[in-house]
Structures are given as structure tokens and as C-alpha cells.
Amino acid sequence: MVRTWLEIFIVSLRLGLTSFGGPVAHLGYFKEEYVNRRKWLTDKQYADLVALCQFLPGPASSQVGIGIGMARGGTLGGFISFIGFTTPSVLLLMAVAVGFQQQGLIDLGIIDGLKIVAVAVVAHALLGMGKNLAPDSQRASIAVLGFVAVLLVPAVWIQVTVIIAAGLIGWWLYRDQDLPKAETLPLKLSGKFSAICLSLFAGLLALLPLLRAATDSLHIQLADSFYRAGALVFGGGHVVLPLLEREVVPTGLISESDFLAGYGAAQAVPGPLFTFASYLGMVIDGAPGALTATIAIFTPAFLLLLGVLPLWLKVQQAPGMRAAAAGINAAVVGILAAALYSPVFTSAVENGSDLAFAAVLFMLLVYWKRPAWLIVIIGIFGGWLFYGV
């Protein structure tokens, strides 16, 4: 098992060093590495996990990474996967907070190249998921309707609504069909453990504001602010921005200019955008503040996933749930397709040259079967060569 944990750490660390482009791009990198290359999960297992994490509040891509680590190496494997994927961006943003500015990378055009890499990676992931999860006209229609809904209704709640609606449609269409049994994740989590995790999640959400009111401790204040942001936000890292801004700027913990500068830096580093909390904590109170903020904002993701997964593994075996899952998985394809367009494609492709570069990277990834880390290196070099000043 130690060898498995070491493997999880090395693979997740490499992804943490090379996964640029935000949450949707991360899902593409994960599918390429964990599903296509290493076969740790099947397409259906991966889609089920993505659907569950899209439904939960918190950083969806981080939760997916935790779930994959748990499937491979138990609960500790999930924690190791999280540490490997998250540590690079935490350390980089702490460094930014003490003066190692990343603006030079932007001037060199590297970020432009990495954005185009994200287009190729997400498109590749979407292609594979579409073939497996929307193979017929009915599920393809669910995927397209989900795509249309997410594009036309740019609201935080729309993704959850699409998943619920797709589940109901899937149940209606496939409830009388003999669908294959769900491919559950190889996890052993007891109902008692699940209940403890959910109780901790709710207890901390209720207790931290009371502790904050009863004490002048800066770290209690940080824990309350960042835990609440991690527990209540749907839609990923970009949505957490206004929540964090209201917690730290009006209270005088950080200036608006420092807040925006850190957010810009968070866009330029790999890994989860929620590690923006590490930058904020570092500015506010050095390394202790960064540690408190980072732990607080990610703890809800852990507790919710550990609390909900056992129930999810049980109910997905029921015939009605398998029918609903057929619709949900198709909707996930549509949701990812919408995210491929905006923000991934719209922020990366501005002209024909950008599209040509993305097409070349896509060709290398799909047809020449080159690994994602090599595509990242080519994207960095291409960004410096073609977009640098």
C-alpha cells in the first residue's frame, strides 16, 4: 500500500505542477491521466464522480482528485492526492505574497500558451466522454440541452439545476430499460463514518461564527471566513472571489489592490484556484495565516465528499438511480462543453493563430498520443515564442 500511496503522490504532484487553466481544464487533465492513461477509473466511474462533485459545494476539481485518490488508496490516498495536487499552487502563491511577482511570466506570453493548452486538453476529454456517455440520440439531446441551458443562463445555480433535471429526464426515459449495473468506485466507507463527517461539516459551520463573536483571535476570524466560503460556494474558484472579497477587504484585513493582485497571480499558477486563500492568509498573517486559510477553505470539501460518497455508492445501484445516472452523465458532457466554450475557449482563442496552435496541440494529444505534461511544455515554449514580447 505504501507503494500505491507514493504513486498517487507522484502523479498528483505532477498534475499539480502542470494543470493550468482552471477547474474545467483540471477535469480534462485528470481524465487524460487517471482514466485514459492509467486506467484507475472507467469513463462511467469518472463521470459519476464528476457529477457528484459538481452537485456539492466547494472546489469540484479538487474533490474529484480526492475521490480518485480514495478509489486508488483509501481515505489516506485521497488526502495524499489532495496534498500532491494542491501544494505547488499553495507554495507559489505564498511566494507571490512575499514579493516573488509573476507578472514577468505574463509578459513572456507563457500564460497565453497555457490557456491554449487548456483548450486542447478539455476538448480531448470532452470527445472521449461524449462518445461513452452520450452514445445515442436521447442522451446526446440531453447533453445539448444542458449545454444550451448553461450558456444561456449564466447563473451559479444553473449547473445543479441541469444535473437534477437531467436525472429526472434520464429516469423517465430509461426507467423500464435493463441498464448495466453502475460501476461503483472501489471504496469502503461506513455509514457511521459518513455521519460523523457530515456532523462535523454542519457543526463547524454553526460553531465557528459563535467562536468568532466570542473571541478576538485573528485565526478564528480567518477560519470562520474561509470555512464558510468553502462550504457555501457552488461553481468553483471564480465564484468564491466575491465571497472572499467581502470577508477580507471591508474588514481591513487586506487592501483591495493587494486582493486583486493576488487574484491575478492565482490565474497564472497551476492547481486549484481555491489556493488563492493561501495568498490571502500569507498577506494577512504570514505562514500561520496561510496555513489557517488553506485548511479552512478546503476542509468542507473533504467532509462533504467523505460524508456523501457512501450514500452515493449505495443509491446508484438502484435501477431508478441507474436510469437517472444515464441522464446525469450526459448532462455532465453538456456542462463541460459549455465550460470549454466559456471561459476556456473565449479567454484563450482570439485569432486564427491561436486556433491553429490549439489544433496542433489537440492533434499531438489525440492522434499522436503524447502525454498531457509534454503538451504543457510545448504550450509554454510556444507561448514564449509566439506571444512573448
Textual characterization of the structure:
With 389 residues, this protein is mainly alpha-helical. It has one domain (1-389). Helices cover 79% and strands 0% of the residues. The chain contains 16 helices and no strands. The chain has helices at residues 2-18, 23-37, 43-55, 60-97, 103-107, 110-133, 137-152, 158-174, 191-214, 218-232, 237-248, 256-267, 276-315, 319-348, 352-366, 372-387. Helix 9 (191-214) packs antiparallel against helix 13. It comes from Alkalicoccus luteus. It is a multi-pass membrane protein. One of its GO terms (cellular component) is plasma membrane. GO terms for molecular function: chromate transmembrane transporter activity. Belongs to the chromate ion transporter (CHR) (TC 2.A.51) family.
User: Outline, from the CA principal axes?
Assistant: globular
List how many beta strands DSSP finds.
0
**Sheet with the most strands, sense and barrel status:** none
Give the helix level as a range of percent.
Answer: over 70%
Class from helix and strand fractions:
mainly alpha
Radius of gyration: 20 Å
Uncertain residue ranges: 100-106
The tally of domains stands at 1
Mean pLDDT over the full residue set: 86
Helical run tally? 16
Cα-to-Cα separation, first versus last residue = 49 Å
- Helix and strand run: HHHHHHHHHHHHHHHH
Q: What is the chains' assembly state?
A: single chain
